[in-house]
Amino acid sequence: MSAVTLKPTDVAVCISQSGRSKDLLITANLVRESGATLITLCPSQTPLAELSSVNLAIDVHEDTEIYTPLTSRIAHLVVIDVLAMGVAMARGPSLVNHLKSVKRSLRGLRLSPKSIKTHED
């Protein structure tokens, strides 16, 4: 598990809709024991929020008895996008060049639309 290899200068991010997942709580404890900073995106007043160094509270109330929670997923995605944009802006052009390089390297892994067989073929 990579959580046990973290150092006090490292940062780990844990994301949870409930803040109560057993496996994630175990991992979060390992992060804290390593001395690393733990940033969480989860509801406030949850075990995961209590373990965090910094909790970005996402308190969305949904009736999960009837349907799968969509609002909380969208809220998590919005916060993650804002954080990603903030990091990209802070890192500047060097990050943009790095991301372009990563994207170029992934192009070869995609199938072209012509190479995909359909049932009609």
Automatic annotation (TrEMBL):
**UniProt record, GO biological process:** carbohydrate derivative metabolic process
- Gene Ontology MF terms: carbohydrate derivative binding; DNA binding; DNA-binding transcription factor activity
In this chain the SIS domain maps to: 1-93
Question: Which superkingdom does the taxonomy of this entry point to?
Answer: Bacteria
Pfam families, A to Z = SIS
| Alphabetized PANTHER family for the sequence | GLUCOKINASE, HTH-TYPE TRANSCRIPTIONAL REGULATOR HEXR-RELATED
**What name is this protein filed under?**
RpiR family transcriptional regulator
